[in-house]
Amino acid sequence: MAPLTIITMFFLWARSMLTVQGGDPTITFEWKVTYGTIFPLGVPVKGILINGQFPGPNINSTTNNNVIVNVFNNLDEPFLLTWGGVQHRKNPWQDGVLGTNCPIPPGTNYTYKFQVKDQIGSYMYYPVTAMHKAAGGFGGLRINSRLLIPVPYADPADDYTLIAGDFFNKGYTSLKKVLESGRNLGRCDGVHINGKVAKGDGNDEPLFTMEAGKTYKYRICNAGIKTSLNVRFQGHTMKLVEMEGSHTVQNDYESLDVHVGQCFGVLVTADQEPKDYFVVASTRFTQREVTATGVIRYTNGKGAPSPKLPPPPVGWAWSLNQFRTFRWNLTASAARPNPQGSYKYGSVNITRTIKLANTAQKVDGKLRYAINGASYVEPTTPLKLAEYYGVADKVFKYDTIPDDPPAEITKVTMEPVVLNLTHRNFMEIIFENRETAIQSYHLCGYAFFAVAVETGQWSPEKRKNYNLLDAVSRHTIQVFPKSWAAILLSFDNCGMWNIRSEVWDRRYLGQQLYVSVVSPNKSLRDEYNMPEGTLVCGIVESMPRPPPAYT
Fold first, then answer.
1. Where is the Plastocyanin-like domain positioned along the sequence (predicted)?
2. I need a surface site. Which of 230, 355, 457, 515 has the fewest CB within 10 A?
C-alpha cells in the first residue's frame, strides 16, 4: 500500500504543479487609500492618495494576467474604484461602478479579482464615488503583450505613463456641494501633468529622461474632470501606435487632442540636441486657455528648455479632422496571434439602433443632465445585485427611455435607467450631442468600433459615410458640439454595464445609464456567479444569498 500512496501523492502534486504553471500568472497589490496634501497647481489641496502617491501607482500587467487588488479604504466616507477599459469578460462583479458594486465602507477593505483577458493597451483606474476623482485616486493601468505575440514596433528603451488632467483648487467636497446646489463647475483652475506643473525656473526635476538616439513609449491619458487637452512634445513628434487597446496605423503627429477618459500610446524618439524639453498639456474648447508643462531631460544633456512652447491647435474642426486620421492596424496582432483585421465588423447586419441624445435642463430649479429625457439617479441597491437577487422590480424598471428620442425633449425624469439588450446582438449606437459643449462617452465591459463622428444630425443615410473597414476598436468616443458619433459592437459580454459621460459633472448629475445583457441559457460559459466576498448593501443586505444563478 505504501508505494501506491507515494505514487498517488506524486500524481496529485504533479497535477497541482501543472495547474499552477499552466494557468495564467497572478499579480497582487495592496493599496491603502488615504487623505493627504497634494500640490498639483503649486498650492496645498486635500487630496486622495493610494499608498501615499498622487497619481496612484501603476498597474503593470500582461495579457491574461489575473489581477488582485486589495483596497483598504482609510477615508471617512465610502470609496470605489473602476478600471476604465478593462472588459471583465463574464465578470461584471469586478467593474467597480455603483450599478454593479457596493462602495467600500470607511475603515474596511475589499479585494478586486479580475483577469485582463485577451487585452493589451493603455488604460486608467479612478474612483467613481462622490467627486473623489477631482482629488486623486487615479493612476495608470497598462496591459503588455505576451512575449510570443509580435508587436508592430521595436521594443522602446522605456515605457512611461503620462497622466494629465484639469484641476480645481477648491477641493472635491466643495465641488460636490456646487453640483448638488444645481450649478455647474465652471472652468478649471489649471492643468497638471503627473500631479505637477513645471515652474520653468531651471530648478524643475524632470518627469521623464531620455537618452539621445533612443525611442520611448509614452502612455498618455486624460484623467481630468471635464476638459479636453492637447498634448505635445517640444521639438519632437509623436508616432501614434496604440489607442485604448488597439494597435493603430502609425501616423506622426505634432500634437494630439486627448479627451476626458481617453488614453493613447505614442513613440517619441530622442533625436534632438541633448538638453531639456517641455512636454505640454493645454486646455481645449475653453474661453481661457490654461497650459501646464513638465520637463523631459536628455541624459548627459545641457541646457534649459526653451520658453517658447509649441502652439496648440485652434477650434474643434481641427480635432474632428484628427479623429478621421485614426485607423486600426489591420495586419497587427493584438492580444491574440490572429491579426486585428480578421474580424470583419463592417459585414455584420445591425439588429438594433439606439440613439442617445444628451440635454441640459433644470429640474425643480436645479441643473440636471439627461439622456433621452431621463436623468440617472443612483439607487442605494446596485442594479446588478437587485437583478441577481430577483428584486429588480423594487429598484428599477427596464427600457424606460425610447430608442429614438423626439426632436424636442421638454421634460426630464429622474430615475435609474437600464436598457435590456439581447445577448450577442450586433448593435448601432448613435450619440447625438444637442448642446454646444463637447462630450466624451465611455462604455464599460466592451470595446466598440468608432465608425463615424460628424457634424449636424444623424439619419440612416449617414451610414454611407461609416468607416466599415478599419475604424479603431476602443472604449471611449468624443462627440463635438451639435454633432453625432456612431459606434458598432456585438453585445456578447453578459452583465450590467455602464454607458456614461466621462465629463464628471455631467455623470454626477445624471448623464449616464446602464445596459443589462443576460445569458439566455443561464450558463457559466456566458457569465460568472456572484463571487464570495461580494459586498452587499441596500435592500439585499439583509436577504439570504441566492443560489447560483448560472450553471
1. 33-146, 158-300, 381-522
2. 457
